[in-house]
Amino acid sequence: MSGLTKRFKWLATPYLLWSVGFTVIPLIVIVRYALTDDTGAFTLSNITAIADPIHARAFLFSLEIALGCTLICILLAYPLVMAFRRLRLSRGKFMMFVLILPMWMNFILRLLAWQMLLSSNGIINNLLMRLGLSPLKIANTWAAVMIGVVYEYLPFVVLPIYNAVMDIDKGVIEAAKDLGAGSMRTFWRVIFPLSMPGLKSGITMVFVPSMTSFVIADLLGGGKLQLIGNVIEQEFTHSMNWHLGSGLSVALMVFVLASMALTVKSENNVEEDRKNWEES
Amino acid sequence: MPDILELQHISKIFDGKKVIDDLNLTIGKNEFITLLGPSGCGKSTLLRIIGGFVRPDSGRVLFNGQDITDLPPEKRSLHTVFQKYSLFPHYDVADNIAFGLRIKRKSREYIQEKVDYALKLVNMEAFAHKKPHLLSGGQQQRVAIARAIVNEPEVLLLDEPLGALDLKLRQEMQRELMRIKREVGITFVYVTHDQGEALTMSDRIIVMNQGIIQQMGDPKSIYDEPQNAFVADFIGESNIIDGIMRRDCLVEIAGAPVPCVDTGFDKDEPVDVVIRPEDLTIVAPEEGFVSGRATDVTYEGAYYDIRVQSDGFEWKIQSVNPVMCGSMIGLSILPDNIQIMHKPRSSDEEVSPKDE
Known about the structure:
- The complex is a heterodimer.
- By secondary structure, chain A is an all-alpha fold.
- Chain A has a single domain (51-279), classed as Orthogonal Bundle (MetI-like fold), CATH 1.10.3720.
- Chain A has 14 helices and no strands.
- By secondary structure, chain B is an alpha+beta fold.
- Chain B has two domains: 3-224, P-loop containing nucleotide triphosphate hydrolases (Rossmann fold), CATH 3.40.50; 239-342, CATH 2.40.50.140.
- Chain B is built from eight helices and 20 strands.
- In chain B, helix 2 crosses helix 3 (108-121).
- The longest helix of chain B is centred in the middle third of the chain and has 18 residues, at 167-184.
- Chain B starts with a strand and ends in a 14-residue tail after the last strand.
- In chain B, 42% of the residues are buried.
- The A-B interface holds A 169, 171-172, 174-182, 185, 189-190, 193-194, 273, 276-277, 279-280 and B 51, 53, 72-75, 79-80, 82, 84-90, 99-100, 103-104, 131-135, 147-148, 151.
């Protein structure tokens, strides 16, 4: 390490204090709670409680929401990105800006707006009834939660995929067309595989947050639908069973870290490939 | 030679600037044709119009007599070798070459056979399973050529394919391209700004400037008989000096009458005279049609590059024999080696700065 880096190392102190105080120490506390019972004796039962039917159901429901959300986001993102790609650069950037715009508004406010839209006598049903159609029962259902998570996380998938697609050398796409590939085959054989790095970072940015979210299910699921996040929240705030809450958190954390590790590992391979490519 | 490609009245305007101006051109089967000109002369745009990547504002493109102006690139049976190679980074060499055949859903055996042949054609058998980023520029270009040729296009379009390679490799690839051309026997339309490359490889050269064809012909006629100052200046080194055509076969250069072989000019018409540096012979001062002082003598290996000042004009001479810098010398020329041109009628025929 050079002298210069050494000299400025102290500048990292605030961040270090922050992460020790608000990440490392709470983590240690949680693990401690998770591994003990009321009497302070060591136990694994808080963690294995994830397998209890009621917890397992919430866990699987979370997994379902997370996988579904990730998949729907990807399916929405690609056509969007392909449409943006055809726009001139300035207009493409403007469209990205429009997409990101809602993210500058408070998260809770956005969800409250969705509540208004989806509720049984809300805006969407009002419109449907005026058109002479029967109202939909969306509020407090699985569908409402899914709409919420997809809405929340879509920009996080679109952005990295957009960047990856825009990074693809135009010449390569022209070469595919030159060799006889129409739009669909150019997409599947060239654009999609070359957008992998963006797709992977999109997945990591959506899968984990949607897996662990609970506010969305609270507000749009009407408290009837329990994600694992809701269960943990209730253990802390209502049942006051911090040991069980911590145990479930640790179990969730282990699952999330493991799935992250898998994605990051394959991402590194792609990055390495890319680096070699750029160096050549 | 039957025609394979025909361009009729092609025009293209980019940002208000006419890049191609009412251009007509026919290309014969199995011809090696080169579009030559400085950057921005419209040669690459013309190639992209043939390839289908740019739509002309007016005019038609005929391929084997059929109008293909409105066909997208993927529907044309011509293939392009791009300047930046544009290989697919996620496929290895063999998969890159197989791309076009897989799109056409050829059988596995057929593809294998063709890919093997193409690899052999460009001497890349040993690299079949390497990813493009592991290859050198020259190797990537070989793959790009194989990737296009394996589809057996009737016309291969090459957009400055050797532009990114160093001189030695470029010369090697030139010979290689000519060999490939002989072996597969298809039409090559080649774009370059390198006049040496054009002279070496082409059957026919189309010299372009400002979207207009300045001259077309075989390399020798382009070099020996440039039709205007632009072509003379762009192709090779030349002395372009004002002259007056006194009568048929006699031109006055710098006040001296010099016999030539050109006819058909008006009496006393002001003309441009083109003399190649290697055609001038150094003689005693009183024996030449002009004389002057050698101001600069540079050894270039095969010859000496000599500059001679005479009445405010600087002559370029290439001579195998050196002269003393500062000495007075005379210049003589054979009538055959003088090329007389009409004065330019428009700006595009004037000498333009070279972009190299």
